[in-house]
Amino acid sequence: MESSGSERRPRVRRNVTAAIAQDICADRYPSGSPLPRENDLCELYGVSRTVIRESLKVLESKGLVRGKPRVGTTVCDRDEWNILDAEVLDWMGPYIKDFDLLGCILEARRTIEPAAAEYAAERAGAQEIADLDKAWRQMRDSAGDPESFTDADVMFHTVLLTASHNQVFRRLSSAIHAALKYALHASNIAVENREDAVLVHGELVEALRMRDKAGARECANRMLDLAVRDLAAAEKAIGRTK
């Protein structure tokens, strides 16, 4: 009985959906494997069958699991997960290095951000430039605080995509926001000196003010060059931690 009790999950869970998802991300339930039966999940997570069923519906809507009549619920392959969903990224957070996601996010930014910066130089409104300037100043003033710096950094890049006034980029800004948070946070905590990043973000704001499209694109590419450097430092730091 003691052995069985030690395997049970805590009975008080703020979010059973997150608890199951995090166990999937941690490979407690590997891709392709069946989840325990409903009654067993109720016992493991200390909740009713109704709660378990609702949680599984949420996980299925995000591509983590698939339920079939008379078969049960199976964990989907990672390629099927909606990795740009904010909740999915939260669940993956502690294991994000295992998913090779940081490099994928950087590749997406390499494709999108220089073009977005160029469009923003032509199309951004005064308020959007002011919002970028505000985010840049917050980065500058919190250079010694990785958490605050990351919040401001994420806001900067989110506003930049919106300021492009490209409907697809604007749509992507909400999807990429959560992904950027993890990528930039991993980079920002891995480097001690953020002065280069602060400088180039400020130069991009100035390029937008001057309606300098070529200059804006060049600044975006320099930011991404720094991101490559910082990502390498982040992956090295994560490796040391593991």
The gist of it:
The chain is mainly alpha-helical and 242 residues long. It is built from 11 helices and 2 strands; from the N terminus they run ααααββααααααα. The two termini are 33 Å apart.
List key phrases describing it.
mainly alpha, 11 helices, two-stranded antiparallel sheet, disordered N terminus, 242 residues, elongated
Describe the structure.
The protein has 242 residues and is mainly α. It has helices spanning 2-7, 16-25, 38-45, 49-61, 86-92, 101-123, 126-141, 146-163, 167-190, 195-209, 213-241, and strands at 65-68, 72-75. It has a two-stranded antiparallel sheet with strand order 1-2. Helix 2 (16-25) crosses helix 4 and helix 6 crosses helix 9. It is elongated.
